[in-house]
Amino acid sequence: MSGDILRGVPPHAGSTAYINARIIDPTADSEYTGAILISDGKIADFGPNLFASGAPYGIQSVDCRGLYLAPGIVDTRVHTGEPGEEHKETLDSAGVAAAVGGITSLVLLPDTEPPFDDASLIEFVARRARQIKLANMYAYGALTVGLEGKELAEIGLLAEAGAVGFTDADHAVGNAQVMRRALYYAKAFDALIVHLPQEPTLSSGHMSSGLMATRLGLSGNPPLAEVMMVERDIRLAEMTGGRLHLTKISTAESVKVIAAAKARGLKITCDTAAPYFALNDLAVGDYRTFGKLVPPLRGEADREAIVEGLKSGVIDAIVSDHRPQDQDSKRVPFAQAEPGGIGLETLLPVSLELTHNGHLTLPQLFQRLSSAPARLFNLPGGKLAKGAPADLVIFDSSLAWKIDRTDLWSKTKNSPFDERPVQGKVMATIVGGRTIYRDDRFVPAVAA
Amino acid sequence: MTNKRAGVPRLPHLLGIEGLSPETISGLLDLSESYIDQNRSVDKRRDLLTGRTVINLFFENSTRTRTSFEVAAKRLGADVINMDVATSSVRKGETLLDTAMTLNAMRPDAIVVRHAESGAVNLLSQKVNCTVINAGDGQHEHPTQALLDALTIRRRRGSLQGLEVAICGDIMHSRVARSNIHLLQIMGARVRVVGPPTLMPTDIDKMGVEVHYNMKNGLKDVDIVMMLRLQTERMQGMFVPSISEYFRFFGLDSEKLKVAKPDALIMHPGPMNRGVEIDSEVADDLDRSVIHEQVEMGVAVRMACLEALIGGRRNSVGAAA
């Protein structure tokens, strides 16, 4: 299982055609065999009939041999350790993992040390991304100073510096007055507020409450800690008219409440992370700290409801919620372990289970992974359109392999999906027309 | 004696009661029984574990459990080292595995571990290649306590099968309650848990127990009353309003005990908070309270566990190296 990270390779000077590909167009909700033409890092043309009789001379053409080609994944929830905890993950190592995972744009969470509550840090991320030359990297601004949930951060200045959304990462804003003002104030900048709905006073436990927690003797967080915050936030969004996006929805009740709010016409959106539709609380059995996440993994009925929410479209997007933790943070008793799991490289294969199991079509899956998150965060990628950046992923949807954490490129190896058999593998990742990752098995026939 | 041991399958560790078979539990109790007379005689020592090293590694303060393990190991001829990490300045958790690896390198035959966090003993057992005995981990399990409770009951009642047992008090934070629920159910007893709703863990009923919030209902016609220690630091209005209110509604006194069977036994894992969860009158009732007998059985049970786990074994760990 290996491939190459290609950094700083300039795109072909002229145009490149990717032919004979199964093209997934999430915006058009369609899938067909066809070709795509890239010029100057942008999509110049695409369609089922393009180059049906072969690419013209003077264009480099790449035969995809029937592999899938889709807009690259836009992952809006990525923790790294830069700055502050570079021993866990740097922007560089996260960029490599993203490239291997078919992720062409990532939005970095602000819970670094120091946190992104100052405009200079948003500029720092942009500068580092230019140096790293892999995926597009964007940053959230902190919603409150120091992510403490007390005073509003400089939302306007952060937005001006390039922050694409505002959040306190895995900290919930418990104070309703602060949240109300944040939603009001952010309207002046049309800024998106992303909130992890967890009532803090009910969320001090270490896993989801229930029989499993009782048996293991671990204190639990009740699933209702999520839905009561969802309900509060919906009321505040309705009152203020602010743009609210709820993140990492993990319970059946939350899906129900959000569906009802959307039915009422409220412009509320939400996402879930791969673990919440792929795992349940059995994954923390025998005190497996890799399964300790925020919010905690729930019971099977909640997991099924998340799958249903993705099917019905109540849940708009899927994120990796990549959160690296080193051994010192995980190889300790469960209650003392830091929460979080890595997910950049496993996001696509784990999400493909939704299509293998017949819950979503491939265009629907890429709506959740690429086009919806790009639209919500106003990012240029995530779609097939003439003039859009050529951010693409080429993958084999049926290749079977087993996730082995020691083979992952991330700096830390805390994958909750370790040893999971999956189907589907990224063969190449293209950002702005440049191939940044290519699997060894994908050796395209290049004809000039 | 050796034929009794034959009934106990070799276990690598004793981390909890959950998952043990009724045969294993009976075998351990039979083996424990054989040590009671020895412990009551003048010459208490046998040489079954001569040359074996047992380390008591306690990350949490404990007097009676640690002493009980120490006495048990010494009466079988083992060398015992006590490490009270709780009193030293090392920070919890951070050094758990380092400590385990260091001790493991000294080639002990068994490490007896107590730790304040659930699952810490399981974690440690994955990193050492000697036998690990759980002497209490967080709110998870305390298997030797459940075994000594079972031995005490069995000697008084002949069998656990069909008995009605009420476990009363702070179920939520109690590893003793969890180990006893497992053991009593495995051995065919019926278990009720009694206490204020705030001290009941979520979905405890799904463990097959009957839940009561009222002592008189919960104690009705029971054969055994097991009281649990209430951690007074949990009494700051977070779980129950006050000690006096707790004692009034959930403390065991002769009045509440009237609804139990006339010969119902009173048990407590110790140390007792008199006037909090138990009235002195019933705690000291010689006809019904078996609290001191539990302590005595504790030594016999721990001798049996040590023998079953590390007795009669060739030094396979050393030989493999």
TrEMBL record, chain A:
Domain Dihydroorotase catalytic: 69-254
Occurrences of domain Amidohydrolase-related (ranges): 255-435
SUPFAM superfamilies: Composite domain of metallo-dependent hydrolases, Metallo-dependent hydrolases
The keyword Chaperone is assigned to this record: no
UniProt entry tagged with the keyword Oxidoreductase: no
Highest taxon of the lineage: Bacteria
Gene Ontology annotations of biological process type: purine nucleobase catabolic process; pyrimidine nucleotide biosynthetic process
Gene Ontology MF terms in the entry: allantoinase activity; dihydroorotase activity; metal ion binding
Alphabetized UniProt keyword annotations: Pyrimidine biosynthesis
Coiled coil: none
Pfam families reported for this sequence: Amidohydro_1, DHOase
GO cellular component: cytoplasm
CDD domains: DHOase_IIa
InterPro entries in the record: Amidohydro-rel (IPR006680), DHOase (IPR004722), DHOase/Allantoinase_Hydrolase (IPR050138), DHOase_cat (IPR024403), Metal-dep_hydrolase_composite (IPR011059), Metal_Hydrolase (IPR032466)
Protein's recorded name: Dihydroorotase
Organism of derivation: Enhydrobacter aerosaccus
Automatic annotation (TrEMBL), chain B:
Catalytic function, reaction form: carbamoyl phosphate + L-aspartate = N-carbamoyl-L-aspartate + phosphate + H(+)
InterPro entries: Asp/Orn_carbamoyltranf_P-bd, Asp/Orn_carbamoylTrfase, Asp/Orn_carbamoylTrfase_sf, Asp_carbamoyltransf, Asp_carbamoyltransf_Asp/Orn-bd
Keyword presence, Transferase: yes
Domain Aspartate/ornithine carbamoyltransferase Asp/Orn-binding: 161-308
Binding site for carbamoyl phosphate: 64-65, 114, 142, 145, 270-271
Pathway(s) served: Pyrimidine metabolism; UMP biosynthesis via de novo pathway; (S)-dihydroorotate from bicarbonate: step 2/3
Main enzyme class: transferase
GO biological process: 'de novo' pyrimidine nucleobase biosynthetic process; 'de novo' UMP biosynthetic process; amino acid metabolic process
Positions with a binding annotation for L-aspartate: 92, 175, 229
GO cellular component, one term: cytosol
GO molecular function: amino acid binding; aspartate carbamoyltransferase activity
Keywords, ordered alphabetically: Pyrimidine biosynthesis, Transferase
EC number: 2.1.3.2
Residues covered by the Aspartate/ornithine carbamoyltransferase carbamoyl-P binding domain: 13-154
Its biological purpose: Catalyzes the condensation of carbamoyl phosphate and aspartate to form carbamoyl aspartate and inorganic phosphate, the committed step in the de novo pyrimidine nucleotide biosynthesis pathway. Reversibly catalyzes the transfer of the carbamoyl group from carbamoyl phosphate (CP) to the N(epsilon) atom of ornithine (ORN) to produce L-citrulline.
Family under the similarity heading: Belongs to the aspartate/ornithine carbamoyltransferase superfamily. ATCase family.
Subunit structure and binding partners: Heterododecamer (2C3:3R2) of six catalytic PyrB chains organized as two trimers (C3), and six regulatory PyrI chains organized as three dimers (R2).
The protein's name: Aspartate carbamoyltransferase
Taxonomic source organism: Enhydrobacter aerosaccus
